[in-house]
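Morning F.,

Quick status update on the modeling queue. The single chain you submitted on Monday has been processed. Sequence for confirmation:
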Amino acid sequence: MVPFSFSGEEMQLVDGRALFWPRKDALLVADLHLEKASFFARSGQMLPPYDSRETLERLAAAIRQTGARRVFALGDNFHDDEGANRLEPHARGMLDALTRAVDWTWITGNHDSRLVAPGHGACMEEITVGGIALRHRASSAEGAPEISGHYHPKLAVRARGRRITRPCTVLAAHKTKASRMILPAFGAMTGGMNAGDPAIVSAMQPADRIDALVPLTGKLLQYPLWRAAS
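Structure tokens below.
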């Protein structure tokens, strides 16, 4: 786990896809997109139906690694509103066990706006914890620090003649406004958007600078994506 500071709080990136908040014993993940494969299977695009198992196994490992007692899932938890009803018995049992083991909050997203909390836990549009707003999609409408998801950011760089792509966290800083953060997609079948895409840069305004954060062998690569003209 790689530590860094956000809005005066120590945070830790977990395997480049999740965020651990030690003071709150909380694990934050975004964009699980559970049951994405079964969603496409309904239209005849047959994909291996194990994406939910893999995502939940990854999530269970992150909870064990951090010792988290709370989980905040920041929207698009299922690929569609009916996804929870399509969980096969093994994945359903995994989800039930996870949501029983820790205090769980489901934040709804654009893919699952009518989600009724599966397993256990609370379901809501957004929540503020320790002065930090947790929601699915970034918003500049309020002055509080914010952590969100939605955009599935990835950083692509060239190193030694190869193009390397990694999920990344996007961090926006401003001299007078609160900091904001976009987490990468956590799900096993989620794809991604270039972290420097205009849609992400625009969503993080106002900002003096916007960086991509990628953990590399115990260190944190902070790659500049955008900087305001001085």
